[in-house]
Prior knowledge:
Elements: H1 6-30, H2 35-43, H3 62-75, H4 77-95, H5 101-113, E1 117-121, E2 139-143, E3 146-156, E4 162-171, E5 178-184, E6 190-193, E7 207-217, E8 223-225, H6 235-266, H7 280-300, H8 302-307, H9 314-339, H10 341-344, H11 350-357, H12 367-379
Parallel strand pairs: 1-4, 2-4
Antiparallel strand pairs: 2-3, 3-7, 4-5, 5-8, 6-7
Helix pairs in contact: 1-3, 3-4, 3-6, 4-6, 6-7, 6-9, 6-11, 7-9, 9-11, 9-12
Amino acid sequence: MYMGDIAGIDYVTQALAQDFARTAAHHDATGAFPFDNIERLRQANLPGLVTAREFGGREAGLAQALAVVNTIAQGEPSTALVLAQQYLFHAQLRRNPNWTEAMRAKVARSAVVDGAFANNFRVEPDLGTPVRGGMPATIARKVDGGWSISGHKIFSTGAPVLTWNAIWARTDEATPRVGTFLVPRGTKGLTIVETWDHLGMRASGSHDALLEDVIVPDDHAVDIRLPAAWAEVDPAAAAWPALLFATVYDGVARAARNWLVTFLKTRTPANLGAPLSSLPRMQEAVGEIDALLQTNRLLLGLADKVDQGASPPPHESFLAKYTINANAIAAVQKAVEISGNPGLTRGNPLERHLRDVLCARVHSPQADSVLIGAGKMSLGVGAG
Length: 384
């Protein structure tokens, strides 16, 4: 179990990351979900790290959540992404006034007592990501005492272990509302279809979820609103996902950097008679990688402002995400470039880090949306 102070949590997460790294290649090669890793997180009481203190959680801020996720990502990033989604869910739960107190308590306590994981299922085959607009095709129809939900969700990270599936759907009312319907694991009509087979983040279990007349009680419609009510983005609500997702891929880049440093120190070509680390060209390359990752560390430091109640405007959090991701990708690509064939050899982890870090580009908001939004802010161009 983790200790009560930050140093204790850091020690535990570093030990876990080292263990997870030993099996990361297996999970990547097979695409097998890291059930053992999730159980280790539960044993360390990490699922409840961000959960509100009133329900037994630690109520950690964004900075501490980033530190844990980043460290775990250096060991096995798919596990870190599942944990990042958990922390995002519980951070949202702490701030959202629309949940009933009974449902808030039930979900929050389950994270602390049972290590229950949760995630939001928002993306659909036709809709794509809701961030780009549009109404979900998943429909919630009112029935006696509750709702009947039918639809198809994709890229549902952590699906094999989630206790709580938060389904983004629209109502069948004359004036549709849209929002979150909470579907517990094992509910009749909910089927997880194992479709995830990607180039990177292969162990994340981001499968499809099919809902066929899934019945949930009234109080499981935890946050449904008119579409216009979702338009305004709270600065803290923007910063949490932006930095949580970005820190996963910064962690991948740090693992790649560490492998490269060890490789350069230990690789001694016969014609050189000295380690590759003695070459100025290699020293310059590592310096370039370190510069990219130092910039990332400074940008991730925005979490301190969020924790102090001084969150940056949403477009600044999104720009930080964009920059961190771009730097992480550039750092891994430089490591591959400078290491040559060994970097692309499947027996070494660098090619896996390259495939994993490229997945940074898919998380919403994506690069074009971030840059257009920031450009509009600077130019004073209206959303219309």
